[in-house]
Amino acid sequence: MELFWWFLTIVLFAVGLIGTIAPVLPGTTIILAAAIIHRIMLGPDKSIGWRTIIVLVLLTLATYALDVLAGYFGAKYFGATKWGTFGAILGALVGLFFGKRMIDAGRAGWGSLIGNIGAMLAKLIIALAMISIFLINVPSPF
After folding, report:
1. Residue 45 lies in a domain
2. pLDDT of residue 82
3. What residues make up the domain containing 100?
4. Are the C-beta atoms of residues 48 and 39 closer than 8 Å to each other?
5. 25: in domain
6. What DSSP designation does 21 have?
7. Number of folded domains in the chain?
8. Of 40, 89, 106, 142, which residue has the fewest beta carbons closer than 10 angstroms?
């Protein structure tokens, strides 16, 4: 039965990694859930400790902060106004039809896009770190 829980954990880790790139899946949350399921099903002797779970929770929360702040700061860096930062991508699309403002809206949209791509890469790195932390701290099943 232990092998089954290891298999499920690895599958969930893979789905979580895909989720850090695909916006429809909460990648790091799936990785955190896999670690917690592993802990619950195998117990403290064969799984990770509470300190490791706390670190994984903090890393998961960090990825959500990245999601919220990346588009905002990316758009802000490229000169978007207060309202432009909240609607940078929409502003860029609508701004295409309004002459001179097209450049400003395009910059805001570009900044938002760059911010979101940066956040995606950072989330991927954090997800890989979460899996590494889990694998380093869990006793080997073999």
Report:
1. yes
2. 62
3. 2-137
4. yes
5. yes
6. H
7. 1
8. 142
**In angstroms, how far is the first alpha carbon of the chain from the final one?**
13
Question: Averaged over 107-112, what is the pLDDT?
Answer: 67
**pLDDT number for residue 93:** 46
CA distance 111 to 72: 8
**Mean pLDDT value of segment 23-46:** 91
Decide if 132 is inside a domain. Answer: yes
| Any domain includes 142 | no
1: Cβ contacts below 8 Å, ≥ 6 apart: none
Q: What average pLDDT does the segment 55-74 reach?
A: 83
Q: Residue 138: name the closest of 60, 28, 41 by CA.
A: 41
Percent of the chain with pLDDT over 90: 42
Q: Specify burial of residue 1 (Cβ count, 10 A radius: 0-12, 13-18, 19+).
A: exposed
- Look up the pTM and report it: 0.73
